[in-house]
Amino acid sequence: MYRVSEFAEKAGVTVRTLHHYDRLGLLKPSGRTGTGHRLYGERGFARLQQIVTLKFIGMPLREIKDLLNQGDMDLATTLRLQRQLLQEKRRQVETAIQAIEQAERSMQSSGQADWASLKKIIEVMEMQNNMEWSKKYYSDQAQAKIEERAKIWTPALQAKVTQDWKELLRDVEAAVGRGDDPTEEHGRELAERWSKLVGGFTGGDPEIQQGLNRMYADQSNWPSTAQNFFTDLPQLFNAEIQSFIQKAIAALRQSRDR
User: Fold this and answer.
1) H/E element holding 82?
2) Which domain holds residue 215?
């Protein structure tokens, strides 16, 4: 156990930071001395590491507190989550760097600003922050519901959902490769997982689902930067996977109607 000044020195933060995190309920001392001084131990150091990493990738302290206070994630799980969030951040930064490099090359060759390249930089930056281009597919009522659901859609939740999709797509891809029958039990199980993940976005709301269906049916008209959102899930639009899962979902529905 270390006093606050000793702990701050070992952890590479300031005493003021520790006091601030204590006031917010982010990092409480493990105990106190007889004279009331804060004491921190190894568990405090592990939690501090999580706080610092999540803060580094831009997660607000309030969301960090909510995430860490869930209490159902061990250190290995939170480290994996942090890695996924950092990988996503790296992908976004690399995409922006590529757009800027393209503009630099254009400047070097022509000696003047290439408005198309500059426009691409703006598109990339904006695309990282919003999905404005997708709003046309949703009714006003559905869009209002999406904005309400966005309040609970944290970066941590996005990372978990992305990982869940990766695992599901891997399993569907394996089923397709084996030549599995999508109408059999395993196919229906995959369809069940697929439906739950889609439902995690729609919340089971039919208006949101209709908008989502319209958006995916119009992929040929998506902006060029829209693909940045799906580079982690390249199999999502694979024709064989889509065909398999559609048959599996149809079979799942039929089994429920019996």
Assistant:
1) helix 75-110
2) 131-257
DSSP string, 86-154: HHHHHHHHHHHHHHHHHHHHHHHHHSS--HHHHHHHHHHHHHHH--GGGGGGS-HHHHHHHHHHGGG--
pLDDT for position 170: 92
47: pLDDT strictly greater than 60: yes
CA 206 to chain centroid: 23
CA pseudo-torsion sign 182, 187, 188, 190:
negative
Same-domain status, 87 and 145: no
Q: How far apart are CA 1 and CA 23, in angstroms?
A: 20
Q: Is the distance from CB of 8 to CB of 14 less than 8 angstroms?
A: yes
Nearest to 205 by CA among 216, 215, 213: 213
pLDDT at 87: 77
- Looking at residue 221, the DSSP 8-state letter turns out to be G
CA–CA dist 91, 79 (Å, integer): 18
pTM score above 0.70 = no
Mean model confidence pLDDT for the chain: 80
Unique residue bearing structure tokens 């209490």: 71
**156 and 122, same structural domain?**
no
